[in-house]
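Dear colleague,

Thank you for sharing your sequence with our group. We've completed the structure prediction you requested, and as agreed, I am returning the results in plain text so they can be pasted directly into your records. Please verify that the sequence below matches your submission; if there's any discrepancy, let me know and we will rerun it promptly.
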Amino acid sequence: MNKLIIFTITTIFYLSSLMVKAQCPVNVTISSNPDVTSGPVCENTPVQLTADSSAGAVNPTYVWVINGDTVPGNGSTINLPANNQTIIVYMNTSTGCFPDNDSASIFINTTIITTEATPIIKECNQTVADVAVSSDGGEAPYNHDLVGVGQSSTGFFSSVPIGSYTLITTDNNGCTDTTQVDITPFDCPDPIPAQVFTPNGDGANDTWIIRFIELYPKNKVYIFDRWGQRVYHEENYKNGDGWDAKYLGGDLPVSTFYYILEITPEFGDEKVFKGAVSIMR
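Please find the predicted structure tokens below.
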């Protein structure tokens, strides 16, 4: 009777050992939905990863690591938005194998589109502006949808009113990028006429300079001497061809003169500036 019991126990132990050995080694693989191993997916696509343990693995627990950061929890499934991540899963079991653990990794190859939108500001206080759009990543051609304005396949929008807009760019495979576009008017600084210049022919400071005058191509300049006689007048004044302190072909004397500067902004009201400028030689 005792021999029978010993034989039975030995047989059970032997069979159990065979069963454990049949389950060894344990291993784990990662499956994904959608399948990220067949090609890139669009940025922020919801991806579900599942750790699949080998048959017979006992009480498997999992540790997920995304780009080097450990994710809380020990379940067999995680969900994340696609963004070129490397994911590793570490599995531990109580199967009785040696080793009793395994790991697997997967890379989520992601299509990332970057878009840059540039408002083209040419004049002061514009109320509208053209917008140029360029995109990189994904697969051309791109379609650009400036919400509330319209769509463009060329990446150019004309006469867009000032304001804030959402730009949605879609590539040939349906991947998208969303960009905020802000069109704000450029407040040009007032022109600043020089108070002194030295027209002595040395090539430095020989003409009267008005800072920022190039922002106001529609302008008029009047200059008078101390007795009120006009000694200079110019429309559309440019610093490159400015007043050189000559009058009727001759040099004006060292003195203080008085100017009237009228500007007409492309968008805005006319402004008048008055002041003094001194000639020194």
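Summary note from our side: The longest strand covers residues 128-136.

Kind regards,
the structure core
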